[in-house]
Amino acid sequence: MKSNSSGRRLQWGLAFGLGLAVSGEAMAFGHGRAHCGHLVASSSCGGCGGGSMPGGWSGCEVGSGFITREETTYQTVTDTVYDQVPSTRMETRYRTEYRTEQFPVTRTVADQVPTTQMQSRYRTEYRAEQYPVTRTVADQVPTVQMQTRYRTEYRTEQVPVVRNVAEQVPITQMQTRYRTDYQSRNYTVNRPVVETVQVPKVVMVMTPVTTTVNQPRYSTVMKPVTTTTMVTQPYTVNQPVTTTRQVVETLPAPAPAPSGQASPSPQAVGPRQVVRDVTETRTVATTAYRQVPVQSISYVPEQKVDYVPTPVTEMVPQPRTEMVPSTVTRFVSEQATRQVPIIVPEQVPVTILTTRFRQVTDTTTRQVPVNVPEQVPVTVMTTQLRTVTENQTRQVPVTVPEQVSVTVMTTRLRQVTETLTRQVPFSVPEQVPVTTLTTVPRQVTRQVPVTRTVTVPVPAPQPMYASPAPAPAPAPFPAPTPQR
Fold first, then answer.
1. Are 405 and 120 a contacting pair, CB within 8 Å?
2. Which residues span the domain enclosing 453?
3. CA 133 to CA 127: how far, in whole Å?
4. Cα–Cα distance between 19 and 12 in angstroms, integer?
5. Which of 41, 68, 263, 412 is the most buried (most CB within 10 A)?
């Protein structure tokens, strides 16, 4: 901008000076310039009377007029320059710090306290009682029986046997065998060439990033839980028991038969005994057990989770591309010669032993088993049943109640206050100097050269015969105003 303004001012100054020069020549007031460079009068000058002087000179002297010349002046120009000035100011910033503080936590603790209670328990006792039992006894009686048994005897007999006999017979056959020959063949081989190439590689750079994370804080809270437990409770039940016993009764003799009927046998005369079964039913007290639900309240510790915002600084990977020299292997094709094996078949006579079979009949002696029956007396134990009545003793259970002192663990709750430590964040202000760039204008003064063309009157030479009157000086032209 400074160079453009200076160039424009110089152009305006030269144009203004050139205009002044042209106007200066036009204002010569009727004078002209001769070929020699002197100013000559083109017309009579009113100032000198217009008379002719001896020697051809007019009243106006030769050389009276104006000449132009260039003058250079320096003008003071003031420019506005803007500078970037650093300024430092103090800013208040807040830094997060953590302090440790103690806070009370009240929790409920369940203690197990032993308590003695009287409970009724039932004890089962057994008492002996006699009762008749009828059972059937099996007796083993020996009995002789005739049984048929078979005895194995062996007899000799002749049996023809046909067997196959193998014989080895030589046979000549033509077999094809393969011979290996080698031929030269050309093939293409890829030879590896190792080159080092710059390859872009993405590298993960770890950048710290601070985020606020809700971290869990665990505490234990006692929660009441109702539990239903099935307790075994005894009770007495009267059950009917049926028993069967044998009773022997004596029956009187029968009355005599009337005339004309058959007389009873001598065995039927007189009293006789009869055995019969008598069924008895009685009630027996029996102890039974049943499950009774009992509800109890217990306190179970339960984990409670509270989330506390906590700043966490994590290293976050960010990709960055770097040029890394890498070794690249490329394959170059080359021609090579190798020996290739070729299998050539050929016929060769070979003698082979072949197995031939023929049948041969032989006579063989063998033992043949023969079963011969025979009668053998055998003593066999036979079972005979008889009824026996016996008295047996059995134990009958009897339930006897009794009071027993039982120690029961009772749950008692108590409040326990504990002091826990936690980290509490707080902000700490601090003054930090911050440097900023401020734009400040300033005035710069410099000298600019200004060239202008001025018209200056030329004094005429003094003649010897007369003293010319001094010509009035032309009015000076106003100085040009420089244009910015």
1. no
2. 2-87+440-458
3. 18
4. 11
5. 41
